[in-house]
Amino acid sequence: MTRESYRDTDQHSHNDVVWNWQILAEVGNIQAQLKLGLIYDHGDETIRDPSKALSWYRKAADHGSSDAQCILGLKYYKGRHVEVDYLEAAHYFLLAADQGNADAQLFLAMMFESGQGVQQNIEAAFSLYKKSSLQGNALAQFSLGMLYEQGAQAAFGSLAIPADRARAVACYRIASASGNLAARGYYEALADQLSPEDRTMAESYETMLDITGAESINHFVSHSSILTPLLKKKAKSGYRAGMV
Predict the structure, then answer these.
(1) CA–CA separation, 144 and 123 (whole Å)
(2) How far apart are CA 160 and CA 77, in angstroms?
(3) Which residues, other chains included, contact 158 with Cβ-Cβ below 8 Å and sequence gap of 6+?
(4) Quick one: which of 41, 94, 109, 116 is 20 to 30 A from 199 by CA?
């Protein structure tokens, strides 16, 4: 068999893979819709096609896929093949976070902390960081540690977060064990500054649940109807700007 024949066979195989996923996607299979989005996004089985990727992501997101919702949130947050639109990003992150998607909870927490696309709300950010941290998200654990270390002033509609360096050290330790490279340095720098009492307290926190306590299941971030009013309003003209 010639090299060209191998290529033809390989291309035919790839086309079959895409075709099989498309048959499932067109009859409403959510996982197939998400898979097609990934295929066209990364070009693993066919030529990359960002427009088709977005179309399939949206179908999967509309049918409730939290992974597709989170991916679309990132697309709008970072401006990948769409214009940057923080309101759209927050909308999709909110849908996914409401279903317990740890990555979406992290990204939405970051937006609430900074006030991008939403009304700045430290309490909402704090609660979302905790929820994501409890699912093992290392960046959320690190971010939660930073909030505990520094404390935070109350923003619009939220409560102030008091500083708690013992909890911060425990968060950094767990984030480091979860794979966050920056957390180790923060842990070592802050641990050396703790009083003996705080050091003992920090060592007593062995899990994220120990650190966050029962209040980690904060009713404030329990479902989207609570957070939706905090989304910033945009003028109707251009609301869907960047959508293809």
Answers:
(1) 12
(2) 26
(3) 120, 121, 122, 123, 124
(4) 109
Contact 126, 147 (CB under 8 A): yes
Q: Is the pTM of this model over 0.70?
A: yes
Q: How many residues does the chain have?
A: 244
Helix axes 138-150, 165-177, angle to 10 degrees: 160
**Cα separations in angstroms, 98 against 11, 50, 106, 150, 200:** 40, 27, 12, 27, 36
Question: Which position has the token pair 């960046």?
Answer: 139
What number of helices (H) and strands (E) belong to the chain? Answer: 13, 0
Which whole-number Å values give the CA distances from 4 to 9, 10, 12, 15, 224, in the listed order? 9, 10, 12, 16, 54
Looking up tokens 């093949």 gives 81
Give the sign of the dihedral formed by CA 76, CA 40, CA 31, CA 60.
Answer: positive
- Report d(CA 191, CA 201) in Å as an integer: 11
**Which residue matches tokens 């179908």?**
59
CA 168 to chain centroid, in Å, comes to: 21
Phi, psi values for residue 165, rounded to 5°: -70, -30
Integer Cα distance of 150 and 38 in angstroms: 39
